Every structure is written in structure tokens, then in C-alpha cells.
Amino acid sequence: MYVETDFLIALVKDSDWLREPALRALEERDDIHTSVLAYAEVLVLFYDREQAEYEIDAPRAITNLLELVPIRPEHHEDAVLAAATFLEEHQMTPFDALHAGMATTGDGKVLSSEQDYETAGLDRLPLETYPDE
Questions:
Q1: With 9 labelled, which of 21, 75, 84, 133 sits at a CA distance of 20 to 30 A?
Q2: DSSP 131
Q3: What is the dihedral of CA 102, 106, 108, 113, to 10 degrees?
Q4: At what angle do helices 36-47 and 76-89 cross, to 10 degrees?
């Protein structure tokens, strides 16, 4: 059964009004899964640290969540794990971190004007000068 962001948030937060139903669903069902989109929304929540009630270790939280709620297709899990690390270690925005994560599951090259990809160790091809890079 596909779950969306409120399910993941209920699991991340210690006190959430949906936590108990989400935990019950995990106990009763063995087909719980989601997509990279739901995890993208969770990364946005982790990124908004000024609004956060407490500090969250994004890579650890995402790793724990993936154990409970896998992503389909499965190969997107590596991209989300990489994105959580880019978010934490390179202070990338959530969507840039996800793009970087997706690139790491491929050839590691990104055609973009965003220079943060270089600081994260990816091979950025400058869009602004393409094809003269």
C-alpha cells in the first residue's frame, strides 16, 4: 500500500497525532511503500531548520525511515540517502540535494548552472556555457 508524506512525518516525530495509526499500519501490513516524492517533502521539512522543533540528523532519520517505508522503485533509495547527506554536509537545498543524489546513481554528471554540485563532488557541466564547457 502506498503511503504519502503525513505517514512518514508521523514516524519521524516523537509526538504526532498520526503516530499510533502509522505504527499500527506498519505492524499489520507488509506492503507499505512510498516514492521519492514523499521523501522529498520530508527533506524539505528537515531543511527548514528555523521552523524545526528540534534538531534532526537527516541522514540517520532517512536511513531509519527507509527501513520502515521503502521507496519504489528501489534504486531511488540510494538517491534519497545521498540527498540527505548532501543536505546535511553541503547545506544544499532539498531539491538540489535530490538532483545530486539522482546524479550519483548515474554517471555523476549534472548539466546545470548550480555550482553547489561541484562542492558536493559531482561533475558539473556549466549550462551557461554549454556546449563550450
A1: 75
A2: T
A3: -50
A4: 10
What pLDDT, in 10s, does the model give residues 21-71?
A: 999 999 999 999 999 999 999 999 888 755 555 567 888 999 999 999 999
Which residue matches cell numbers 505504527? 23
Which grid cell is 94?
A: 532539498
Q: Tell me, what amino acid is at 121?
A: G
pTM for the complete prediction?
0.87
DSSP the chain: -B--HHHHHHHHSSS-TTHHHHHHHHHH-S--BB-HHHHHHHHHHHH-TTT-SS---HHHHHHHHHHHS-BSSTTHHHHHHHHHHHHHHS---HHHHHHHHHHHTTTSEEEES-THHHHTT-EEEEGGGTT--
Cis peptide leading into 131, omega within 30 of 0? yes
